[in-house]
């Protein structure tokens, strides 16, 4: 199978406009690697934050009700106290990432560059 035949086979269900946009990456495979790496890290961070949130939410419910608290609840709260430092560090890290994203124009510039290249491709049609 030739290169173009393989590409057509892989992307046979995509609309023509999407194929044109994806053709940018034919000569720049490193960009695909960077994009996938960023998504992977982002998904890991989201899952971590969801787990910590669920972990703390259950702890808050247990801590609110001291009447009828069982031994397993006490062990759970003790475990949270043991991991308090890691949880707080994670929350600080997320807060710092958010501050950096708000202050930085690098992401905005990159998105603008992508939009400009897509517009120019559509104008060439």
The stretches of 5 or more residues where confidence is low (pLDDT under 50) are: none
- Tell me the overall shape: elongated
Q: What is the CA-based Rg, rounded?
A: 24 Å
Overall domain count: 2
Strand tally is 0
What's the mean pLDDT score? 76
Order of helices and strands: HHHHHH
Q: Helical percent range?
A: over 70%
- Please identify the structural class as seen in this structure: mainly alpha
Provide a count of the helices.
6
Quaternary structure: single chain
What is the percentage of strand-forming residues? under 5%
Distance between the termini: 28 Å
Sheet bearing the most strands, described? none
Explain what this protein looks like in three dimensions.
This protein has 125 residues and is an all-alpha fold. The chain has 2 domains: 1-68, no CATH class; 69-124. It is built from 6 helices and no strands.
Keywords:
mainly alpha, 6 helices, elongated, 125 residues, 2 domains
């Amino acid at each position: 199978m030739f290169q173009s035949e393989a590409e057509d086979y892989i992307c046979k269900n995509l609309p023509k406009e999407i194929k044109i946009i994806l053709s940018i990456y034919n000569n720049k495979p490193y960009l695909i690697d960077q994009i996938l790496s960023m998504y992977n890290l982002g998904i890991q961070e989201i899952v971590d934050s969801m787990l910590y949130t669920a972990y703390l939410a259950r702890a808050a419910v247990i801590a609110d009700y001291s009447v009828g608290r069982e031994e397993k609840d006490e062990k759970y709260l003790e475990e949270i106290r043991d991991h308090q430092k890691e949880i707080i560090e994670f929350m600080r890290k997320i807060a710092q990432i958010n501050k950096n994203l708000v202050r930085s124009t690098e992401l905005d510039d990159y998105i603008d560059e992508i939009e400009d290249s897509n517009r120019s491709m559509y104008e060439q049609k």
